[in-house]
Write a structure and sequence with these properties.
8 strands, two-stranded antiparallel sheet, elongated, alpha+beta, 614 residues
């Protein structure tokens, strides 16, 4: 027989059951309901449900069938109008329990339904103390060691990994889980976490937290659902409906719930507490994964969830809520890509909201984890050990217990000092190093600025010196040009004077020649006078006296110029003395010479002055 797809809804007076039976032989169908039992048959479909409340047959019941959609709808009146039926979305729990076909040892529930209901009511009324008593560890003999190595949901499994040694290291960290007791697993876990912690990685995420701040802004679906629930707590009825109204289900999730086998779990008080604590541990790891991936799960999602949960990775059994929080916090700072304490507190607050929403929200999260592990090999083994049993068990859990668990979790405190990694000391030391680096950078920046200023000043001084040198060069060139022009003028003046001196020399030479001629003439005249007569020499002397008088007058007027010219000529060592000229031989055979005196010859100045006058 095929179990059809179904869903239930309610209003204050009626319970509505919608059954999807495509291609059913509706000409032959049967519906039976009484009290909490409901049965439906339409070949080849068969459905049997155990309802959370009682229904009654009083003539108001209705049934209809949509041929096009293949949907059969049944409306059943409630025995107590206005009663709220809790857990209508817990489809696995609604399915009637099948007879157990599991291998030995067989566990059978003994007692009537009424007795079981009374036990459940007593358990619900019992004050739920999450701080259970802890007993000291007693060493167990090796002969009985193998009997104590239990794990899985409620520590109900053992001997599973003896057949999975090749795949063991792919999804758990325990080397020999079947031979390692719970205390030994915990000790090895703590040692592994201490060795795995990387201070550099932690400090890098602590100071460079841009990505972490971004993912912390993401809001998963339970944030809005919790806000709606809080806003709708004005009326009692809305309080009840909020647990199912604010959690939606996909068809895939409904189908998975129908596939689960409905069964009961016989757990003692201590084991029940351990199951609740492990549930918190699994939900914390799931909330971390949803936060960092922003709801977009990837191939690493399975690794993240099982690695962050000590329950799944080390088969851990917790005894208190602080133990769960410390274990999760340590593993967040040791294993994933993003290792920040704020991610721990964010997962902590998200888990509280999920528990406050009730078992519907918890079941939805567990179904998502079940899907992630189901699609990953060999993580699917963790479904058989934990997640499938949690999905079935949570549907029968009382909402009051989840609310009490959420309240206790919310009151718990977790600080960095609890994790045992000396995080505060690391952060303080890193801040000191950062401040020192900042100071060094500031000093370096100031020195660089001063160096730049000095370089600028040097360049400015070089520019000013080059400017002044260029100005000096230009002034020197100007001065040189002016001195050159002045020198040119002086040179031209000197040239003029030289020319004048040369001309004077020429003139003086001519005059000297004239004088010599005159002298010679005088000598000749004297020699002739001695030979001829004395009348000619008298005329010559008279003429020479007139010329001397004229020369004296001119020399008085040009005395300054003549003196300067004579000084220049004297500096150059000019020798104006005229070598004695050979005269004609006298009749006696002797040669007559006229010696020129080395003293100033007034005839020279007279000749120069006369030339300038001309």
């Amino acid at each position: 027989m095929i179990t059809p797809a179904f869903e239930l809804s309610q209003d204050p007076d009626f319970l509505t059951i919608i059954i999807n039976v495509p291609y059913a032989k509706v000409s032959e169908f049967d519906v039976y309901f009484e009290g909490k039992d409901f049965k439906f048959y339409a070949k080849p479909y068969f459905l049997r449900l155990t309802l959370p409340g009682r229904i009654v047959e009083d003539g108001r019941e209705e049934a209809s069938y949509n041929v096009d959609k293949g949907i059969f709808t049944v409306r059943l009146p409630k025995e107590t109008p206005g009663q709220y039926f809790d857990g209508l979305d817990m489809l696995t729990a609604l399915l009637a329990q099948k007879k157990s076909r599991s291998a030995k040892p067989l566990v059978e529930e003994i007692g009537t339904s009424a007795e079981l209901a009374e036990e459940e009511e007593e358990e619900e009324e019992e004050e739920f103390d999450w701080e259970i008593e802890q007993t000291p560890y007693h060493e167990i003999a090796e002969s009985t060691l193998h009997l104590q190595c239990c794990y899985g949901f409620g520590n109900l499994k053992s001997g599973v990994f003896q057949r999975l040694q090749d795949e063991l290291s792919d999804f758990i960290d325990v080397k020999d889980p079947d031979l390692t007791p719970a205390d030994g697993r915990r000790q090895k876990r703590l040692e592994t976490e201490a060795a795995k912690f990387d201070p550099d990685h932690y400090l890098a995420d602590f100071f460079e937290d841009e990505v972490i701040q971004h993912v912390l802004k993401y809001k998963p679906w339970w944030v809005d659902a919790c806000a709606k629930k809080v806003a709708s707590q004005g009326r009692r009825h809305q309080e009840h409906v909020s647990q199912t109204t604010f959690v939606s289900w996909s068809e895939e999730e409904r189908e998975q719930l129908r596939k689960f086998t409905n069964k009961s779990y016989l757990l003692d008080k201590r084991t029940r507490h351990q199951v609740y604590f492990s549930l918190i541990d699994i939900l914390l790891a799931y909330c971390y994964e949803i936060c960092i991936t922003e709801g977009d799960k990837n191939v690493e999602s399975s690794w993240n969830i099982r690695k962050l949960s000590a329950t799944l990775c080390w088969l851990e059994s917790f005894t208190s809520i602080p133990e769960v929080l410390v274990s999760f916090g340590r593993r967040v700072l040791c294993y994933p890509l993003y290792r920040h304490f704020r991610l721990v507190t964010r997962a902590f607050s998200d888990t509280v909201m999920i528990l406050q929403l009730g078992k519907s929200a918890v079941l939805k999260c567990l179904l998502d984890i079940h899907k992630i592990f189901r699609e990953n090999d060999p993580a699917y083994i963790l479904n058989d050990l934990y997640i499938t049993d949690y999905c079935i068990w949570i549907q029968k859990t009382k909402s009051k217990k989840l609310a009490a668990l959420a309240e206790s979790l919310q009151k718990a405190k977790l600080t960095k000092a609890h994790l045992g990694f000396e995080l505060e000391e690391l952060e303080s030391a890193a801040r000191l190093v950062q401040e020192e680096e900042s100071e060094l950078k500031a000093v370096s920046a100031v020195s660089k600025q001063q160096l730049r200023s000095s370089e600028l000043e040097t360049s400015d001084s070089e520019e000013s010196s080059s400017t002044s040198s260029s100005e000096t060069e230009s002034s020197d060139s100007d001065e040189q040009e002016s001195s050159t022009s002045e020198d040119g003028k002086i040179n031209s003046l000197q040239g003029t004077l030289q020319e004048e001196r040369t001309a004077s020399l020429i003139d003086c030479s001519g005059l000297g020649r004239d004088t010599d001629t005159l002298t010679l003439d005088v000598s000749n005249e004297k020699s002739k006078a001695s030979l001829q007569s004395t009348s000619v020499s008298g005329k010559l002397i008279e003429e020479l006296g007139k010329k001397m008088q004229t020369a004296i007058r001119l020399s008085e007027q040009t005395e300054g110029l003549a003196t300067a010219s004579y000084t220049v000529l004297q500096e150059k060592g000019a020798n104006y003395a005229v070598e004695p000229q050979r005269l004609s031989e006298d009749p006696g055979g002797k040669e007559n010479f006229l010696e020129v005196s080395p003293k100033e010859n007034l005839l020279l100045f007279v000749g120069r002055t006369n030339e300038d006058e001309d």
